[in-house]
Amino acid sequence: MTSRQTFVETNKTTPTPGGGLRGPLMWSQEMYWYQYHLPLPIVDSAKIPLILRMPDPGVPEELVIAAIRNLIYRHEALRTIYPTDQSGAPFQLVLDQFETPIPFCRDGNDLEDIDAVFHALFAPPMDQAVEIPLRVGLNFKDRRVATVVLVLNHIAVDGASMGQIKAELTRYLSVSGERISPSTDDQKVNIQPLAVARQQSTVRAPAHERAMRYCENILTSSPAAQFPRFRSATLMDPHRDVVSYYHRVVLRSPALFSALQKLSKRNSGFRATNYLSAIFAVAISALSGNSGATLMMNFSNRFRGVRRSVGCFFQEALFSVNLLSQATMSEVMAETRQRSLVATRHAQYSYLAFRDRKARIEADRGLSIRVGTVLNCSDRLEQNLRSPASEDRTAGEQPSSTMKRLECLWRDEHTDLCLRSSALNGEVHLDLIAHRSVIEQDQIESMLTAMEQFLIAWANEPDLATVTVAEVVERFGLPASSYDEGWAHVDHSWVNTAKLAQIVSSVEGIEAARVSVEERPSEGRTLVAQLVGDPSRQDQVRAHVLASLRENVDLMCPHEFVWCDELPESGSPTAAGSTASDSAAGAADVPVSPESPAGGAGYEALAAALEIALGDAPVDMDCSYIQQGGRAVMAPAVMKHLNQLGFEGPTPDDLLGPWPLRAVVELCVKRVSDE
Hints:
The chain has about 675 residues and is an alpha+beta fold. Helix content is about 35%, strand content about 20%. The strands form six sheets. Strands 10-9-11-13-14-8-12 form a seven-stranded mixed sheet. It has a four-stranded mixed sheet with strand order 2-7-6-5, covered by helices on one side.
């Protein structure tokens, strides 16, 4: 077995002046550009694999290389890099000249050989600023290429691009190795990403603003976290050295394939994706213990003009549904279908503008909003269910479903729970990826089995449309969570009031604290902190709570502080004392805490780095970045400049939170090499 080339050295390209077409990012690319700058645990790009088996007896290596070069010429997305300008703003550069990727080669075509090539391509970080977004691996058998493995940068392609890439690569491999020029018809049909980006950058008005208002409405009523017990990897086990903190389980079910066919035929107004969305929403609600479910979905999100184009055109649609325990499944179906349609209509928007508005809403609500639940239904799911060939495969007795635990290579922690569904060869595949702090592996298997069995039962028992959400959870054994008396539900969120009281009590000058929820006729449920101690410390208490939100998704800033001579008995009315009622919007507008240093190297370095985004105006470390006019697009540049000044620690997400900048200063650590 041989390994002819590694990728750290080969795929990087330095653009030359006039060497390509330059333009803004598409809105759909902005998310992957931003997430690239979140080093969790390292700076890397999200990647998509494609494995293509060659027909026996294989093909010559030179033909594969020529076909790949033709593919890159054909699609601008495959020869585009994503640098930043001098201000730190991103742009895309379509290269006129590039080096054809040198393949990673391995003798042998067994599954372990193909897996080894995939890992060799996937493991090294992919630098979106200088490396073309395509890596190539070849498995050889008898000196001919038996399998082609591609790993692509997600900022350049989405899942819908993979079928087009596979079809064209297959066509190129069937002809001579000469460069193939795209036909005039192909050029008309296949819109290139740069053209879409330029159009989006000039047409921003009513439709984009409607999408932003829609997102604002969702975020204003979303839980702070769908799963308040989420804990980041650094908090779970800072010394644990693993690639991923995720479980992954795949259920393959022929019976579910037949059930979804039957359900879709029974009611033409609903599609298979509607049934999957409904039962997944119920599962989310049960597992989180929150009747409100907020998630991102990314099926059928490519607009019509780019259906045959290669690029990252899809955008996740923000979606919410309220699942009361006594709602019937027919009501859940109707609500999820309607809300998913509305969400899809508002799925084209600037991700960076979305992050700006999200940060402002977090500051207003006094909490940090984590939207980490994803529903991904393959665009081909419905096609495969309706194909004539599927009728023959599902006729007669069907094999039982299978469950398999798989490796998950995700290196970030953006996701809590992700369900990916597809259909192939008469089976529905439910692929569930979940963060280890959200659900255990055996619970994932229970959830998938419960979802499968419910849909199969519904196909055979139409009356299940009338059962309630609570009955479905109990009858089919969906994993469910509950919260003890140390928790309270307020502002659509579960809050750990016991932990919040401890954090409040840890501030110097606070002798005792209790946090509870009170019903107010005009204000609704209000989170009240009762404190014993020095009332002049109230600003410090609020600032400390806001800073704690960075690592605690189960907290929020109290809406009201009540100072008492002593804490009343539990359940008693609020004791008399000085009361200060403030919205969380002003919670960060506090003077410098006496015990917090007013200077220091980290303080000065962050203040200097912030000038890139905030200009020459004085930086208020007791106010959040977004409240001082900071924007998401500049957050990576601030962190880069901070690093150039010799400090590391904070990420762009740390900068965009609702906490005062003083909390970010505390994360700044001088690099050892610079000391």
